[in-house]
Predict the 3D structure of the following.
Amino acid sequence: MHLRYDDDFVEAAAFMCASGRRHGATALQVRRFHSDRETCYAQSDVDERNAAFFKVHLAWFREWGLEHLLTGFMGEYPLLPGALKVLAFRQARGRNEEGAELYVSTGKVRNAMVALRMDRLERDAPLLRFLRHEFMHLHDMVDPAFGYSPQVHLPTHNQTQQRITRERYRLLWDITIDGRLTQAGRETMAGHGQHQAIFERAFSFWPEEKRRHVFESHWSDAQPAHLELLALAADPRDLSHAQEPLPGGSCPLCHFPTFEWVSVGGLAPDSLASIRAHFPHWTPDQGACKRCAEMYEVAGKFELPATMVV
């Protein structure tokens, strides 16, 4: 497995250390860092100068221990080094961009990309909680026993029902991940109580005893399976009349996760018309996030096309 980094990722990380936002860099190291950067300006060719800067930034990225911080716990995920050809890191511009993605080429070559907000590098503990959670996602995806498939397509479900099924699936998967991390003595992104509260809301149509049993069995499940999670997530009960998306679900308009859903029924007719003009297949039962609703309220009033600024 080869490690790769985007240029702006290692540059931003190195400057974070040099600026003191991440503790540990000595005054002597900071002076050496800036001195090394000065030598890069001697390169007259732009491409060669950029390559020289990347080399300097990467060297200090490693000297300040950031590469070890990002990958030093890889032994906890034994399948990843052999399953991935490349593990790459890039800078995420916002929380909505963060996470780990697996890419499989037509030749079955598997590469992974981890996107991080740079402020996560300021403190080790929150960063490791995030990385362990995301690496567990990757580990499951390459584990034959988990049987992962990126396609969650159910022919008998309409678009809204499939979205809710995907949200339920993600919730169940996250429960199994943080449950396993807890059993291993690791800190997690969310605790038992937080996961249970969201689970209770998502599966409120089940009897209380079933909810308790399913949640606890998945929290303690050492070997979850994709098809079993999907079968639970696709339970048709409550899908036919489900109107309220799950917290953290994706807005069907901007596709970003949101915890602020609005009542589409309260939107003005002009706003609804504006949404439908840009999204012909959208229906009110799919909902919309607060930001999109506000944007299309303005677009409807002034009869202007809405512009998504992310």
